[in-house]
Amino acid sequence: MSEDIIKISALPRTTDPINAADLLVLSKKDAAGYDSYGITVDDLQAVVYKDVAYATTAAGLAATLVNQIFYVYTDATQNFVNKYLNKGNGSFTPFTYNGVIRKYPTAKCFEAIDSVYGFGLSKLVDSYTALKALPVQFEGQRVRLASYASGTGLGGGEFIGHIGTKADDGGTVASGTNYYWQRVVAGPLTVQMFGAIGDGVNDDSYPFQKALMAANAKGGGAVYACTPSVNYRLTFPVFFFYNTELYGDGQMTKIIYENPFYNKGRGGFIMGSSVECGRDLAIAAYAAGTTATAAIRNDAFVNPTIQQYIRDNPSFVQSAGNSIHDLNLVATYQGAALNGGYAVNMCNAVNCNAYNLWGDGWTEIINFGSDTAPETPSTHNCHAWNITCVSPNQNKTFYSIGFAANSTGFSFKDCKQIAPLLAGTLNGSGIATNVCEDFTIEDIYIPNLGLSVTSEGILVNNSVNYLVNNVRIGNCITAVATYYTLSAMIDPLKWGHITNVHGSNCTNVLAIRGKYVVFSNYTGDNYTYDVYFGTSNASNNVIANEPRAMGFGGSTFPSTYLSNNDVKGWKYDYVYLRPLDLLVNDKVDLTSYDANKTISTKADINLMLHTMIPTVFKAISDVRCWLTFFNGSLSHVGGASTATVSVRRMVAYDGNIGETPYVEFTNSRSSISDTTTDTSLVAQSTGTTPGYTLAADTTHGLANSLDLLITMNNNVAKNYMKEIRLGGYK
Fold first, then answer.
1. End-to-end CA distance of the chain
2. CA-CA distance, 473 to 530, in Å (whole number)?
3. Residue range 137-143: average pLDDT?
4. How far is it, in rounded angstroms, from Cα 148 to Cα 128?
5. Burial of 293 by CB count in 10 Å (0-12 exposed, 13-18 middle, 19+ buried)?
6. pLDDT (tens digit, 9 = 90+) per residue, 185-207?
7. What are phi and psi of 587, to 5 degrees?
8. Is residue 175 part of a domain?
9. By CB neighbour count within 10 A (0-12 exposed, 13-18 middle, 19+ buried), where does 595 fall?
């Protein structure tokens, strides 16, 4: 021993009197060396009863007066006493704690200080394994655990010994044969209490799982994962049960999950259980130590079917009241498979939340339910907010931020993606839904989504009664898209609302392939179309802002899309014209006329009616008029009486008087009888795409130069031209 170290036993004894407040040093030697503790004389005297104790309560009553305290040895060893109050008349009251009679060590007990007895924290245990092997000598014995695993300095704490049995949970209850040690927990449980190390090498999966199970076993509670020295390493999914909160210190609490594949339920953290996510199989694999090779798909599990929402079928609930937040979750892959994981997977779960999370490398960060039989779990009232996708999976991302299917009452709010999807990779939306009701997607910012195969910022499919609000998506094919494939998910009483959308550097701001949605307040920059109608399924929608550039897909004419949807600035309407107002001829060329609906021809005089197409029309698609061919109109010497309607465009503004106008569409009607016949004449542009003629089109001439020309040739007396109707979009 060095000269700087003196044994306590070798210290000189003081000759000064010892006062009640003086501090004494207690020392105990074990395999690890000496452990020393301080205690005042007062405190020591309070727990050491060396003056008078009795063998029986009867002896104690006989030796004391009413309202005096007396002590009785617990057994023949005289190491411990119980404390009693003399109540008089031969009765007494024991001093108890939580219903158990209090037990106190005696001076004789302290004479055996070098044994496993001792008071307070005189015993220091090196590891959780050693604690389990340490017998409890008396009820209430206390020890201190140095660390969960020897030498790590993590997961230690104070334990109280109990006689009896209790299930070992791997962190707060350390059980032996007919005894157990119960951890003193002042705040939340921690994953370190269950053996997590966070050095990036140790597999911390089971410690996380045991911590969540321990919280669930006591009716719910919080589990804290502090900032690790390197990162937590997980290799197997961790499951929630009920009313449990897992949280960390934010982005600094980094958890790396290795190979979150399909056979392991895809999830890093899973709230609930399902066919793909067999929680019972996973827990059994943990207990058996077979997680390295275990698969957790459970085909015996029964999920709700599509549209069998858990909201209405609570018997399917597998998890409720959980939350996970303030963690940085990272997926990594080794080998041939490079995608497939969900950071947080909620299946058959209700009332659960995920927030303040960072995700990197995941196929999805947040998943609510699923839609591919037999994996069709449902969720209700589950929410995700403040989710940051640092980088999506660069091999294949389904939905970089999240996906919801077969679910109700959920929300995604305040979510963003930083790095883009890899161009050309499969799938690739920011957030998507399928077969869902009553949800909100709000405050989503993805400035650079990335041009994957689908590249949709928000995709809403087969969904009703929802709000998508305040969405900004850049570098994408489509900022927000709607679809439907299931007729059961069409409900004219449950409209969707998509508002405040901005698309930047995209093909489409909005792409519409669904029904019963109100679109409003959408803007964009550097886009091809602000509104794109993709298939004939796009009907019964309201486009509350006038589109600046519309696109149309499939074989459906654009005019059909416009007719089947309420598009602001593209309302189909009519203008009615009187033939006398259009007459180019002098009125002397008429047999008769009135100021309302009709003019009547003279024999052998051709008539011309002409007007500019009214500027209220953005596009014209239909011109029709009523007319009458009089007696002899078929046998006219020049040929049958004929009326022709043409919509024309001026080709150029160049002073060329020989120019022929371009005819956008035309039609004629000739008499087919020498008896008086009432008939009509219709000319339409609906037979060729786009189904209308744009006033502003310059393909065949000048914008805003459309006119209407009507001719009546080979007339007999009293052929009639009547009222004329123009149909088009205003």
1. 102
2. 13
3. 89
4. 5
5. exposed
6. 999 999 999 999 999 999 999 99
7. -65, -20
8. yes
9. exposed
What lies within 8 Å, CB to CB, of 517 at 6+ separation is: 460, 482, 495, 496, 497, 498, 541, 542
How many domains does one find in the chain?
4
Under the banding of pLDDT at 50, 70 and 90, the label for residue 103 is: confident
State the pLDDT at residue 4: 54
Residue 52 pLDDT > 90: no
The answer on 512 and 394 residing in a single domain is yes
Q: What is the mean pLDDT of the chain?
A: 92
Structure token pair of residue 310 = 């858990």
- Of 28-32, 391-395, 542-546, 659-663, least confident by mean pLDDT is 28-32
> Which residue reads 């043409």 in tokens?
646
Q: Check if the beta carbon of residue 649 is closer than 8 Å to that of residue 702.
A: yes
- Cα(265)–Cα(278) distance, integer angstroms: 7
Structural domain contains residue 492: yes
Hey, what are 432's tokens? 């998507």
- Same domain assignment for residues 661 and 695: yes
Query: Which tens digits make up the pLDDT trace of 559-585?
Result: 999 999 999 999 999 999 999 999 999
- Which residues, listed in sequence order, are joined to residue 729 by a DSSP beta bridge? 572, 619
Query: Which whole number is the average pLDDT over 641-645?
Result: 98
Q: How far apart are CA 665 and CA 726, in angstroms?
A: 13
CA atoms within 13 A on the CB side of 382: 34
Token pair for 568: 């602001």
Query: Is position 338 within any domain?
Result: yes
Q: Which helix (H) or strand (E) holds 205?
A: helix 205-217
514/650 same-domain check: no
* pLDDT grade for 266, boundaries at 50, 70 and 90: confident
Percent of the chain residues past pLDDT 90, beyond the cut: 82
Claim to verify: residue 691 and residue 563 sit in the same structural domain:
no
Output DSSP code: residue 587: G
Residues 365 and 510 grouped into a single domain: yes
Structure tokens at 507: 């093909």
548 and 581: one domain?
A: no
Q: How far is CA 214 from CA 221, 509, 513, 643, in A?
A: 9, 49, 48, 90
Find the domain containing 145 and state its range.
124-183
